[in-house]
């Protein structure tokens, strides 16, 4: 019995040693080494200064490059995270990034990247987080971005993107957070986004979008998980539909549009409604009493409309700061 236990223990130690040896001698996949070194030649001095050596995953003498996270797969190491933000990187979006096929996180926010997001971005099938906010990226979003089927967080805010919001974003079935605010998007929000069962945060504020909220909600059972809806500072028209009350988790930020009509009393039935920003539109009539009895409603902004004189705001109106809407991963 003792001999059997000793042999079993020896076998386990041997297997562990083999695993450690395999990890220590694992080489970084040439594809990833080539791609990262290509990026290294293009980016600014701050990144180059911290990217020492030729192997982005490091070796026995050098640590991994700053902002690069690797993982061992079989006999190789692959790059799974590239987080190089606030480094004053200038120039076009580095297309070589799209050769890092095992990436799960790509975070290049707060740099000075320009030009378009390349269509090759659709190669990154394992990507879960894409954060490009606070750059100077331009042009229309490529429809291939809808191929990032693992994506849960997409932040493209504070850039200069133009054109329509791609309807292909509705293919991102795992998406939970979509930040498109502070760009120059035009046209209508694709109603197909309402089919995203896990989407909880949608921010398209401060663009040049048009259409009505009724158009956005035209798909039956849309936006079942949506919590935060930011439509502020656009050109939306029409009345607020009663169907908004079907979104039982909703908070609404509708300031500075061209919305009209009376406020439906049905919206006071949204149980988790804590913020309702209606200010600077063309609303009229009275505010239903039910809103003033809502147990959770803390802020209701109403100034800049044509409400009757008995309409009163709830809470103290404060100007939204970036920290209020810029949710970090």
TrEMBL record:
Superkingdom of the organism of origin: Eukaryota
Q: Name the Pfam families on file.
A: LRR_1 (PF00560), LRR_14 (PF23598), LRR_8 (PF13855)
Every copy of the Disease resistance R13L4/SHOC-2-like LRR domain together lies at 96-207
Q: Which UniProt keywords apply?
A: Glycoprotein, Membrane, Receptor, Repeat, Signal, Transmembrane, Transmembrane helix
Query: What coarse category fits the chief subcellular location reported for this protein?
Result: membrane
Protein's UniProt keywords contain Mitochondrion: no
**UniProt-listed SUPFAM superfamilies:** L domain-like (SSF52058)
Name the record gives this protein: LRR receptor-like serine/threonine-protein kinase GSO1 isoform X2
Species the sequence originates in: Camelina sativa (False flax)
What's the name of its gene? Answer: LOC104740050
